[in-house]
């Protein structure tokens, strides 16, 4: 199930919130039951993989804590790594690996093509971080299986993050407390996220697809298309994080921020401090620093982190290239351009960063390498300036484009918080209006004429 | 205080959502506007739950339950429309006047494609370029669509694979050289597998986008280029049919529907004339036919991008019965009953895996037509010339074409596809050969 859908908004969420609020003693169990329902709705079979990963780390945590001073501790850590990464590898990367080995060595290994279980990239990292933290002695192992499972399966953040660390919600897990402040903040946050997804990301995505659909691209069409895609992926993903954080707040949990206006970044390094923060901090804390961080072979560590970041996004070479592209840029900023960048005017730094990010999104969008080549050739002068398609998509989305640009800066949020002081009723009105608009658009998406005379 | 109000309003909105999908009867306009039945609650059993089929059915069921659903859909279209403005394109550089002398390129012919096309044709047969030879006017002009003007009305907007105008919808074309070559190869393979006595024809037709003013054609790939590529790769024993040229000479007529991706019977008529020339018989004149009309046709493209202005100006389907006393079994045309909807399936009753038509032509000749839906409007024109017409739809046909052909003598095999649809059915065409 996804948040921006009628089944979630009309049935699941009302039913869940009523039970959750009405049965204070059974909150962890209610949360667990609804989370499993939420997950099984989209992944009825591989809910088993989720439960398996959760159960495995629950026991690993307990054993590591109990045998703290023995060799078993390390063995259990390795076993958890093998289980979680093995799960991820077999579902996500086995086909890709087999194809590449076959291509390289002329072998003919069967390339398994599993459908990727929802959220597996997120929850394996989440349970892994728990076991590592217990191993490092940073958190205590959770004794209640229900509480631990409700952390692993918690539906607000289960399928698309943010990657919530156990340490951040440990305290709340066994003593869930709801407050009107938290709930109200959560409501506003959820409505914001829903609006970002339905009113901004979806139409931006349609515009991008329209521009990239034809087999010929123009200069204006390629740039406009990649700008729309950049907005789509930001509002889609950050909208989802907003909804997750908002739902978390409603039900008594605080998740960390996952995005901080990444398109206001003034360097590529800065962009990655603002984009998908829970993923980059995961790689920082569990890969980069353990490898030696800045102290030993920093360049090699960076390369490892960015190779993995790319691969995490998908089992395909373009994602690896995308990750390495950022690895190179960030290394360059770190080791070569530090002084140059810090002296350049802000507007120049911002322009450079956005250009770099847009090129990155092109690598990310075109999983087909020849198409990526066609994009670059059009974007850098090898095609006509513009055509009717580019012109039409530009004008028929001109207000959308303005809304996207404004909404990716902190100004609307600042305005809202000013208004909140002066006009307190504005907040509930805004939330209700946003939700009704989104509901309307979601019903509109279901327009589905039966096309019996297509051929 | 305001926090509690915020929470209360949120719950009120959620309650409204829940009530709107549970407490009201379903909106009957769904069935009418979307031309389908309601999505019922998905069937539930172990297998369907595990395969995800049950969960996938919940969303469609629920959205059909929304009270006043049709109003929400209209509202959502209005919201989507407010994201921008129409492109300030002059309502198209008007196509050259239809009275232009015959020596100039026919109206709407892509000049760029012409100049880019390699001059000495690689295949030494009639190229699909409109030939500037004078031609006799058909004895009767086909009916003009009363609502049609030659220029699209209003500025166009690209919406997915369609350009939306106030009065018409035009599908864009995407060209792939690889697929064009494969399509030609597929036909060549038929030639190779068939005895010399069977003549093989390839008829690939352009669609409406090809004859739009250049500013719109720019958004699409060139069908001329695609057809040239296919015809250029055909083997020596396959005769290409210059339907493009014949159609391009008549762009002031009602050749393509405004709300559907198909051609009209008249569009198909000009392709038939080109075919007659290639096959060496004389095409019938339109005056030998009696015209009938079915108004109120809103086609596939309309369903993809519905709008009020187009709903008010639906297409009319014209069809033509041969007056020369021709009997066919089964019938060629299937006009709707009293309350029936006007649909493209008036031509030969829509798509069939195999349709075998016997006519009273009595000449012992057989046409085997391998086609997509464009062929449906084309087939009736063949009736006076062939005693047997076997219409095969590769997407549904289970047998093999070679077997079918071996049932008859004196066979012409004709591939009828549109540029927009041909490449989508390639594997089916390859599959049913032998």
Structural features, described:
The complex is a heterodimer of chains A (455) and B (434). Chain A is mostly helical and 455 residues long. Chain A folds into 2 domains: 6-177, no CATH class; 182-454, no CATH class. Chain A contains 21 helices and no strands. Chain B is an alpha/beta fold and 434 residues long. Chain B has 2 domains: 17-83, no CATH class; 157-431, no CATH class. Chain B is 34% helix and 15% strand. Chain B contains 17 helices and 12 strands. A 7-stranded mixed β-sheet of chain B has the order 5-4-12-10-11-9-8. A 3-stranded antiparallel β-sheet of chain B has the order 1-2-3, with no helix packed on it. Chain B is elongated and about 90 Å long. In chain B, 44% of the residues are buried. The chains are: A mainly alpha (455), B alpha/beta (434). Chains A and B meet through helix 1, helix 9, helix 18, helix 19 and helix 21 of A and helix 1, helix 3, helix 4, helix 5 and strand 1 of B.
Characterize the main sheet of chain B.
7 strands, mixed
Mean pLDDT of chain A: 88
Q: Please name the two chains that share the biggest interface, counting residues whose Cβ lies under 8 Å from a Cβ on the partner chain.
A: A-B, 71 and 82 residues
Shape, principal axes of CA atoms of chain B: elongated
Structural class of chain B: alpha/beta
Average pLDDT confidence of chain B is 82
- Number of separate structural domains of chain A: 2
DSSP strand (E) fraction of chain A? under 5%
How far apart are the termini of chain B?
A: 78 Å
Low-confidence stretches of chain B: 90-140
Oligomeric description of these chains: heterodimer
How many extended strands of chain A?
Answer: 0
How many structural domains can be distinguished in the coordinates of chain B?
2
Helix count of chain B, per DSSP?
Answer: 17
| Straight-line distance between termini of chain A | 33 Å
Instruction: Report the order of strands and helices of chain A.
Output: HHHHHHHHHHHHHHHHHHHHH
Global Rg of chain A: 23 Å
């Amino acid at each position: 199930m996804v948040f921006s859908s009628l089944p979630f908004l009309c049935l699941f969420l009302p039913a869940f919130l009523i039970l959750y609020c009405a049965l204070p003693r059974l909150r962890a169990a209610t949360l667990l039951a609804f989370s499993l329902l939420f997950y099984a709705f989209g992944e009825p079979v591989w809910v088993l993989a989720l439960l398996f990963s959760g159960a495995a780390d629950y026991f690993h945590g307990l054993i590591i804590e109990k045998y703290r001073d023995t060799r078993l501790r390390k063995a259990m850590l390795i076993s958890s790594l093998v289980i979680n990464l093995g799960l991820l590898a077999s579902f996500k990367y086995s086909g890709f690996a087999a194809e590449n080995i076959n291509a390289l060595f002329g072998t003919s290994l069967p390339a398994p093509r599993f459908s990727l279980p929802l959220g597996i990239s997120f929850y394996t990292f989440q349970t892994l971080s728990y076991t590592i933290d217990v191993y490092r002695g940073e958190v205590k192992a959770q004794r209640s299986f229900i509480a631990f499972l409700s952390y692993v399966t918690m539906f607000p953040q289960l399928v698309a993050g943010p990657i919530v660390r156990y340490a951040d919600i440990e305290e709340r897990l066994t003593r869930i407390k709801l407050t009107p402040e938290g709930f109200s903040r959560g409501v506003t946050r959820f409505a914001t996220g829903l609006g970002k997804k339905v009113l901004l990301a979806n139409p931006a995505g349609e515009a991008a697809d329209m521009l990239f659909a034809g087999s010929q691209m123009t200069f204006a069409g390629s740039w406009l298309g990649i700008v729309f895609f950049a907005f789509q992926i930001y509002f889609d993903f950050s909208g989802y994080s907003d909804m997750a954080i908002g739902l978390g707040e409603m039900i008594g949990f605080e998740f960390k921020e996952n995005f901080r206006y990444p398109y206001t970044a003034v360097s590529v390094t800065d962009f990655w401090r603002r984009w998908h923060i829970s993923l980059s901090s995961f790689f920082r804390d569990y890969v980069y620093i353990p490898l030696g961080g800045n102290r030993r072979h920093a360049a090699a560590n960076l390369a490892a982190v960015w190779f993995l970041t790319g691969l995490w996004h998908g089992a395909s070479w373009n994602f690896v290239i995308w990750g390495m592209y950022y690895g190179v840029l960030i290394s360059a900023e770190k080791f070569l351009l530090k002084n140059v960048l810090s002296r350049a005017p802000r507007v120049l730094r911002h322009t450079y960063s956005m250009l770099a990010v847009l090129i990155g999104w092109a690598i990310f969008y075109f999983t087909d390498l020849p198409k990526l080549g066609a994009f670059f050739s059009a974007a850098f002068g090898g095609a006509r300036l513009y055509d009717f398609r580019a012109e039409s998509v530009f004008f028929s989305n001109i207000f959308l484009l303005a809304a996207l640009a404004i909404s990716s800066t902190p100004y609307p949020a600042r305005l809202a918080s000013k208004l909140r002081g002066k006009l307190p009723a504005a907040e509930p009105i805004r939330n209700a209006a946003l939700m009704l608009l989104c509901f309307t658009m979601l019903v509109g998406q279901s327009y589905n004429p039966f096309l019996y005379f297509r051929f | 205080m305001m926090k509690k109000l915020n929470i209360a309003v949120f719950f009120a909105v959620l309650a409204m959502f829940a009530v709107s999908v549970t407490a009201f009867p379903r909106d009957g306009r769904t069935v009418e506007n979307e031309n389908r039945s309601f999505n019922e609650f998905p069937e539930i059993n172990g297998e369907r739950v595990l395969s995800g089929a049950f969960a996938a059915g919940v969303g469609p069921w629920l959205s059909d339950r929304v009270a006043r659903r049709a109003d929400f859909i209209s509202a959502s279209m209005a919201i989507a429309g407010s994201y921008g403005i129409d492109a300030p394109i002059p309502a198209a550089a008007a196509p050259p006047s239809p009275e232009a002398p015959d020596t100039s390129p026919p109206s709407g012919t892509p000049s760029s494609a012409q100049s880019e096309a390699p001059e000495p044709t690689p295949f030494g047969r009639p190229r699909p370029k409109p030939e500037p030879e004078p031609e006799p006017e058909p004895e009767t002009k086909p009916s003009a669509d009363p609502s049609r003007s030659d220029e699209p009305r209003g500025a166009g907007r690209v919406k997915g694979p369609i350009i939306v105008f106030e009065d018409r919808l035009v599908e864009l074309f995407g060209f792939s050289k690889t697929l064009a070559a494969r399509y030609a190869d597929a036909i060549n393979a038929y030639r190779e597998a068939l005895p010399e006595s069977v003549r093989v024809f390839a008829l690939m037709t352009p669609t409406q986008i090809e004859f739009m003013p250049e500013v719109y054609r720019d958004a699409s790939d060139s069908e001329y280029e695609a057809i040239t590529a296919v015809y250029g790769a055909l083997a020596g024993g396959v005769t290409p049919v210059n339907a493009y040229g014949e159609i391009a000479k008549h762009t002031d007529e009602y050749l393509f529907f405004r709300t559907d991706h198909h051609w009209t019977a008249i569009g198909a008529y000009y392709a038939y004339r080109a075919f007659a020339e290639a096959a060496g018989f004389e095409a019938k004149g339109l005056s030998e036919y009696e015209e009938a009309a079915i108004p109120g046709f809103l086609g596939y493209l309309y369903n993809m991008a519905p709008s009020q202005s187009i709903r008010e100006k639906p297409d009319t389907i014209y069809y033509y019965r041969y007056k020369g006393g021709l009997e066919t079994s089964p019938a060629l045309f299937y006009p709707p009953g009293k309350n029936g909807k006007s649909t493209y399936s008036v031509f030969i009753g829509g798509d069939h895996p195999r349709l075998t038509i016997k006519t009273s032509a009595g000449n012992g000749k057989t046409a085997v037509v391998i086609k997509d839906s464009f062929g449906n409007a084309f087939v009736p024109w063949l009736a006076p010339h062939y005693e047997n017409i076997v219409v095969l739809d590769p997407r549904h046909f289970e047998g093999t074409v070679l077997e079918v052909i071996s049932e008859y003598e004196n066979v012409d095999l004709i591939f009828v596809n549109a540029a927009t649809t041909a490449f989508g059915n390639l594997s089916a065409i390859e599959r049913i050969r032998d």
